[in-house]
Design a protein that fits this description.
9% strand, binds thiamine diphosphate, alpha/beta, Rossmann fold, 5-stranded parallel beta sheet, 12 helices, two-stranded antiparallel ribbon
Length: 330
């Protein structure tokens, strides 16, 4: 990674953290839906996404990789519109942006990613798919199905497993008896690598190698990015009920953003002034996106019926009419 790319990575990481802070504050005011921050995992999210070429590669996300999607071309205001309940045209992924929607049903995105990668291979495209899953999601049956088929078809896909030590309140040690999630790749016939997920240089390098392998027709890689969720699972969660505060203290000493700042400062490429300026410009960009998102029209109950059928069946047409007349009476 060149210095310029590392500075770009730091800006994305700061944007991720600042967006997390803003979205959480808005959720507390009732202006944003349930939100899952990437706090502490910024090096994993940004380092992996930066190994991709947005023009030809694809991202198939879980739900904690928002800045990966933005870096890949999904405009921040559209993503924010989705979070703020504007699930209308405003939130749609624009044509030509190679990302799939967030997936909350754990691991179901993995067979999709394998299918997408296999399809791209059949079309003889030189595209690669990067898909994300958590330590918790890796216990799902879809994890096995997605990785197994990818191995058999040598599909150009990178499985990026963010091991953030928690699946809501379930700790890593009871998620699996395996000493390393990366080892599982051996069972599927492709390489598995473990990387320090709080080191953006290491993540970028591991992801870059995996992307290169996939592009060269050598098939999938499983990357276990070992990191720590330095926040709640989502805005409905209260980790003080189950997390030992010492774990959080230890993790904050490995804060992925502080590490880059220290590294760049040591090399004379970063200072307080630059830090302040960058954070201010990122904040302004995030606030502008949130303002735009808030100005989009809110979704109306009748829109529940849109974008499902080309022609609405009779039964649903009646339900829509009923809903409209109920609403007009109130
Ligand atoms: C199939 C399925 N089962 C259960 C859930 C409920 N659930 C939502 S998030 C979550 C934990 C996921 O943990 P992990 O995969 O490690 O990802 P993280 O949220 O820590 O990034 C669970 C159990 C779900 N969304 N989907």
């Amino acid at each position: 990674m060149t210095d310029a790319v590392l500075i770009e990575a730091l800006r994305w990481m700061l944007m991720s953290r600042i967006y997390d802070e803003r979205a959480t504050a808005l959720q507390r005011q009732g202006l944003y839906g349930v939100f899952s921050p990437a706090f502490g995992q910024e090096a994993s999210v940004v380092g992996s996404a930066m190994a991709l070429d947005p023009v030809r590669d694809w991202i198939v996300p879980q739900y904690r990789e928002l800045m990966a999607l933005v870096r890949h071309g999904y405009p921040l205001e559209r993503l924010a519109a989705m979070g703020m309940g504007r699930v209308t045209e405003a939130a749609r992924i624009p044509d030509g942006v190679n990302v799939l929607p967030n997936q909350v049903a754990l691991a179901t995105q993995l067979p999709h990613a394998t299918g997408l990668a296999w399809g791209l291979k059949l079309q003889r495209k030189d595209s690669v798919v990067m898909t994300y899953v958590g330590d918790g999601g890796s216990s799902e049956g879809d994890f096995h199905e997605g990785l197994n088929l990818a191995g058999v078809q040598r599909a150009p896909v990178v499985f990026f497993l963010s091991n953030n030590q928690w699946a809501i309140s379930t700790p890593r040690r009871v998620q699996s008896a395996t000493p390393s999630f990366a080892l599982r790749a051996a069972g599927y016939g492709f390489p598995g690598v473990e990387v320090d997920g709080n080191d953006v240089l290491a993540v970028y390098s591991a992801a870059g190698e995996a992307v290169q392998r996939a592009r060269a027709g050598e098939g999938p890689t499983l990357i276990e990015s070992v990191t720590y969720r330095m926040s709640f699972h989502n805005t409905t969660d209260n980790p003080s009920l189950y997390e030992d505060p010492k774990q959080r203290d230890d993790a904050s000493r490995r804060d992925p953003i502080d590490r880059v700042v220290r590294y760049l400062t040591g090399r004379g490429l970063w200072d307080e002034e630059r830090d302040k300026e960058t954070r201010a410009s990122v904040r302004a960009e995030v606030d502008a996106a949130l303002e735009k998102a808030a100005a989009f029209p809110v979704v109306t109950p009748n829109q529940l019926f849109d974008h499902i059928y080309a022609e609405l069946p009779e039964r649903l047409r009646r339900q829509r009419e009923e809903l409209s007349s109920d609403r007009s009476q109130t």
